[in-house]
Amino acid sequence: MTTRTVDTTEELAAFLRSRRERLDPDRLGLPAHRRARRTPGLRREEVAELAGVSTDYVVRLEQGRGLRPSAEVLTALARALRLAPGERDYLFDLARRRRPGGTRGGAATGPAPSLAHLVDELSPLPAALLDHRYDLLAWNPEMARLLPEFDAVPPERRNAMWLCLLHPPMRGFYADREGVLRDGVAHLRAAWAAHPEDRALAGLIAEFTAQDEDFARLWAEREVRVNGRGRKLLRHPAVGTIAVDFEVLLPLEDPELRLLVYRAADDGSRAALHRLCGGDGCQEG
Questions:
Q1: What is the tens place of the pLDDT at every residue in 195-225?
Q2: Domain endpoint, select from 94, 121, 155
Q3: Is the dihedral of CA 102, 107, 111, 112 positive or negative?
Q4: Alpha-carbon span 171 to 243, nearest angstrom
């Protein structure tokens, strides 16, 4: 499949349409005479009125006619469309504007040695360092043991989304596979907009879309919510069910990297992790 990087004008148009169409006019308190409509969501003129721009401007944006809206217009559109913070970031990235008060780091070139050492020193908590593509850059022995048959994965395939989608031993690993995939796809879509020239990322997305129908379905929904904290229920083939709480941390000097840390959510899960690592700590296998 041909690797496709981001056509930001086309994606900006599609994203604005999708967010306009999902809004419920009733919940926005629009006058009753405006509510009879044949298609879901708001009309373009209603978005224009809420954002303080012309209807023609909204039409041209949604038709992908090469406009580059200012930060002020983007802020108004984000407010009119009730965008969540991650969606606002995505909108600004597509328009190649820096969101006021937001941050965007440069492309990651690899983890600093201190970060790789930190991952090791987080033992016995399973931990890993990932980049914006979900490539695994560093991991400790506990994380390697937790991911089924991770030692058999070729170096070029050490990517968290690839493992979830295409590594057969992990097919049933996540009890809520749909939720894990939804979060992962939303992160990759945000990263895709923030790195429009990243052909490696575009290649991964093309591969996942072609080979996994669940990924293709979720990708088409254009969700860009980023979830940095929560709980996962894991089904490990050796020790059974493990509930973990996870945190995703962003290093201040390397904001394109993600430090993922798991903690056992209950005593049974703590005991399972202890058994998995042989009681006295994991050894790389």
A1: 888 889 999 999 999 999 999 999 999 988 7
A2: 94
A3: negative
A4: 17
